Known about the structure:
Chain B: It holds the Pfam family YCII. Chain B: Residues 17-107 form the YCII-related domain. Chain B: InterPro entries: Dimeric_a/b-barrel, YCII. The complex is a heterodimer. In chain A, 68% of the residues lie in helices and 0% in strands. By secondary structure, chain A is an all-alpha fold. Chain A has a domain at 3-73. The N and C termini of chain A lie far apart (59 Å). Chain B has helices spanning 27-47, 96-107, and strands spanning 2-11, 50-55, 62-64, 73-75, 84-93, 122-125. The mean pLDDT of chain B is 91. The A-B interface holds A 222-224, 349, 352-353, 356-360, 362, 366, 369-370, 372-374, 376-377 and B 22-27, 29-31, 34-35, 38, 55, 57-59.
Amino acid sequence: MDEVLLRSLTPGVLTVLVRRGADFAAAEDAVQDALVEALRVWAADPPRDAKGWLVTVAWRKFLDATRADTARRRREDRVEEEPAPGPAPAVDDTLQLYFLCAHPSLTPASAVALTLRAVGGLTTRQIAEAYLVPEATMAQRISRAKRTLSGVRFDRPGDVATVLRVLYLVFNEGYSGDVDLAAEAIRLTRQLAARIDHPEVAGLLALMLLHHARRAARTASDGSLVPLAEQDRGRWDTALIAEGVGILQAALARDRLGEFQAQAAIAALHADAPTAEETDWVQIVEWYDELTRLTDSPIVRLNRAVAVGEADGPRAGLAALAALDASLPRHAAVAAYLHERDGDPATAARLYAEAAHKAPNLAERDHLTRQAARLNARRCS
Amino acid sequence: MAKYLLLKHYRGAPAAVNDVPMDQWTPEEISAHVQYMNDFAARLEKTGEFVDGQALAPEGAWVRYDGEGRPPVTDGPFAETKDLIAGWMVIDVDSYERAVELAGELSAAPGAGGKPIHEWLEVRPFYGVQPTITE
C-alpha cells in the first residue's frame, strides 16, 4: 500500500464528514481511526476505491463514537437524520482545512501537530516520534488544539500567511522518526499551491525545493555539517533545483514580492553557482536588502553581513556586523568567519569557541568546535 | 533490570586524566570522539540497554517562585556555578556492575592525541518500582 497516497486522501475524507454534519473535532478523530485501520488491513486487502473505503469506515467510526456517547444524544438524533453515506462529493474543502489547522488562536506547536494529522494524515504516533515527545503528550496537544477551535466556523476564509508559517515550521524544524517531515512539508505545500494561486505559496514551495535539493550534500558520512561553500555540488539534486527555479520565476513575474520569494531567490542564486567562488554575491546582497525591507528581521541583517563580506570583502562584512546586537543567535559564528577571512585566525578561533558555547544544536556545536580546532591546530604547527 | 543515569559534567567532576578542551584538539580527534559516542549509543540500542541520551547547552539560569501575582525570580546565566551538567545517558541494565562497566567504556572516549579522556562520569541509580511480591 502507498502510504503517501493514503495520506493524500485524508483532507478530502475529513471534509466529507464535516459536510455531512459531523463537527470538526469528532470528524477528525474518526478519520484518524479510519487511517489507523487502513494501515492495518490495506496491505493484505487493498480496496478498489480507497477514498470511498475511508469515507465509509470513518463515517462508521464517527457514528459509533457518537452513539457511544449518551451525553450527546441530541447530536445523535441529528446524525440519525443524515442520509446514508453515499459516494464522496467532488467538492474540495481542503483549503478550508489548511486555514482551520493554522488558525491564529493556536500556538505554533499545536498548529503544526494538527496540520500534520488533519491535513497530512499522519498518525499521532508518527508525529510524536518526529518531534521526540511521548505519544500521549502529542495526543493531548492535538485534542487541546481541537478544543480551542470548537467555536471556529469551518467555512470562514483564513489568512494564507499563517498557513505558510506552519508549513515553514514543519519543513525547518522536522527532526527524525520514520516520517520525513521535510518531504511531508513539501507535499503539503504542493497540495496547497494546487488549490490557491498566491505568489508567496509558490515562493515557499520554491524555497523548500531549493533547500531540499542540497540535503544530501549538507551532511558528511560521519554526520557532521558541511557548509555551503564546501559542499559537493555534484550531489545537489538538479531536478529539484530546476523545478524550484521555474516555480520561483513564475511567482516573481507576478510582481508581488514577499519574504518567501526573496528567500527562495537567494537559495536559487546559490543553486545557480557551479562553484562557491562563482556565487553572485552582489545579487545576493541586493536580495538581502529586499528581505530587510520586507521583514526588518535582525537575523536577515546578520545573514546580509555574511553576503556583504563575500561581495565587498571581510572588512565591509565586519562593518555591517558592527551595527548589529552581539547577543543575536550565531553572531559570534559570523564574526569568527569574517575575522578568519580578514586574516586574523587568533580572533577567529576565539570567536568560534565562543560560538560553539552558544550553539543552538549539537551538530552546529560540533561544527563550530571543529572550526576553532582547525585554526588552533594550524597556529600551533 | 535497573535503570541508571550516567551523568557527564561540563564542570564539577574531578579532573580527567586527558584534560584538554575540545577546541584544542585536531578536527580529526573531534570526529573520532563524536563517532565513538554515536557508536556507543548504537551498540546499547542493539543490546536493548539504551533508554535515552540528551545533551544540555551550557547556558542556564536559576528560577524560583516569588509569590502570588509576581513573575518568577530568575538568576543567571550562572557563570560561577561549581557544577554544570553537560548531558546524560539513561541505561537499563541487569546489575550495578554492568552500569559501571558501561560508564567505564563511555569514559574511554578518545580525546586529544586520540587517547582516552578518562573523564569522570557520575553513575546514579533510579529508584525502582515497588515489587508486586513482597513476602
